[in-house]
Write a structure and sequence with these properties.
The chain is α+β, with helices and mostly antiparallel strands. It is built from two helices and three strands, in the order βαββα. It starts with 11 loop residues before the first strand and ends in a 5-residue tail after the last helix. This is Transcription factor Pcc1.
Length: 90
């Protein structure tokens, strides 16, 4: 029986950073997306949202690549929609 490298993964950590074009939109994007993060963790995935200088950052911790991919897609969608509503070119 063979074991793939992916079977040996026990934890994956990813951090994404989103920088709005207009710095004044940072707080608006953060506060519009933050309520969605209160609902985490979902399953084996934990997401923490914070502001860091000119970025909105999301720290994701999961146990599989599919969980990371699902969280990244969700977070990207929330940030993208919030930014577009505020007139950002993303």
């Amino acid at each position: 029986m063979s074991t793939s490298t992916l079977d040996l993964i026990s934890k994956i950590e990813v951090q994404i950073r989103f920088a709005p074009e207009k710095l004044e939109n940072l707080e608006k994007i953060y506060s519009s997306v933050f309520p969605e993060f209160v609902k985490w963790p979902k399953g084996n995935t934990t997401v923490k949202l914070h502001k860091e200088k000119q970025f909105v950052c999301a720290y994701i911790q999961a146990k599989s690549l599919s969980e990371i991919r699902a969280a990244l897609n969700t977070i990207h969608s929330w940030l993208y929609i919030a930014a577009r509503i505020l007139g950002e070119n993303v």
